[in-house]
């Protein structure tokens, strides 16, 4: 009796027939074949999504780059840090603006004057990098100057020795500069005050000082106001720019007289006060 199934051909499973091995560089990829009309390609949607994500990321980087850019602003008459920060939507307000420009503005954030250049929107990292570069550049320049100075000293010593050996006469010393003299009138007082102000970094112009003097005292250094509220309080306004004694003492500029009637001392103290309060005496057009 024949053995069951010995010469029988087994039926191939439809699932087995539907598997085709596709070689891709030595690796076999098994794909189900449904039929000639049922073959399909991988959907293109993931590629589109990837491109969209890449485009969005690039766009975001562009926007971030735009936001990180800084701008330079030139101060005009009547400006304050608070006003500038508000008009340019500075994040952190006037304090952040002051911190970014403290080196330019100085120790008093209320003391800004027309023409001052402020940086708006600068990043701390960039400024730190700039400071590092500047420090490195400064150190390099200092080193170069030191080397140059040493070289000059060496050349000078050699030259002096050579001249002494030849019996040449010593060079005459340069005459000392003559002191500047000022006329004892309104023009001279203003010019002398401007020289003192320049030494102490106090802003102000001849026109601004002269205009306010004419309004306040008509150019009389002994003028005194005995009728306004200051006089009633026992501290009358005095001198060319009508300064009360407490203000004169608080804003007195070293190197000038302690007499509030002294024309130069009165002008420089008043200009120092106006700079602290209004940015400059040039910004004062009325009672102050």
Report on this model:
This protein has about 290 residues and is mainly alpha-helical. It contains eleven helices and four strands. α7 crosses α11 (about 265-280) and α10 crosses α11. The strands form two sheets. It has a two-stranded antiparallel ribbon with strand order 1-2. It has a two-stranded antiparallel sheet with strand order 3-4. A hairpin with a 2-residue loop joins β1 and β2. It is flat, with a radius of gyration of 41 Å. Helix content is about 50%, strand content about 5%.
Q: Report the portion of residues in β strands.
A: 5-15%
Q: Which stretches of 5+ consecutive residues score pLDDT under 50?
A: 1-68, 123-130
**Mean pLDDT, rounded to whole units?**
73
**Strand order of the biggest β-sheet:** 1-2
What gap, in angstroms, lies between the N and C termini? 132 Å
Helix content: 40-55%
Spell out the helices and strands N to C.
HEEHEHHHEHHHHHH
Derived structural class: mainly alpha
The Cα radius of gyration reads 41 Å
- By DSSP (H or I, 4+ residues per run), the number of helices equals 11
Tally of extended strands?
A: 4
Shape: flat
Largest sheet: 2 strands, antiparallel
């Amino acid at each position: 009796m024949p053995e069951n199934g010995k010469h029988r051909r087994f039926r191939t499973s439809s699932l087995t027939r539907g598997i085709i091995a596709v070689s891709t560089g030595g690796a076999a990829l098994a794909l189900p074949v449904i039929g000639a009309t049922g073959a399909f390609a991988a959907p293109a949607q993931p590629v589109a999504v990837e491109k969209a994500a890449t485009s969005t990321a690039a766009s975001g980087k562009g926007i971030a780059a735009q936001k990180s850019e800084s701008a330079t602003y030139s101060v005009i008459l009547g400006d304050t840090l608070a006003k500038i920060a508000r008009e340019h939507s500075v994040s952190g307000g006037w304090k952040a603006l002051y911190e970014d420009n403290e080196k330019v503005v100085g120790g008093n954030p209320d003391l800004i004057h027309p023409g001052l250049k402020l940086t708006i929107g600068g990043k701390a990292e960039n400024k730190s990098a700039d400071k590092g570069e500047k420090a490195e550049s400064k150190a390099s320049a200092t080193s170069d100057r030191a080397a140059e100075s040493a070289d000059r000293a060496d050349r000078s010593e050699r030259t002096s020795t050579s001249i002494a050996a030849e019996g040449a006469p010593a060079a005459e010393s340069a005459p000392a500069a003559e002191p500047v003299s000022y006329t004892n009138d309104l023009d001279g007082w203003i010019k002398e005050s401007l020289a003192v102000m320049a030494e102490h970094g106090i802003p102000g112009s001849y026109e601004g000082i002269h205009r306010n003097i004419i309004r306040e005292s008509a150019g009389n250094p002994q003028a005194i106001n005995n009728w306004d509220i200051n006089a009633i309080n026992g501290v009358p306004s005095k001198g060319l720019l009508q300064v009360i004694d407490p203000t004169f003492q608080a804003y007195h500029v070293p190197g000038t007289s302690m007499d509030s009637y002294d024309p130069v001392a009165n002008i420089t103290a008043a200009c120092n006060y106006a700079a602290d309060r209004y940015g400059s005496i040039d910004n004062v057009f009325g009672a102050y």
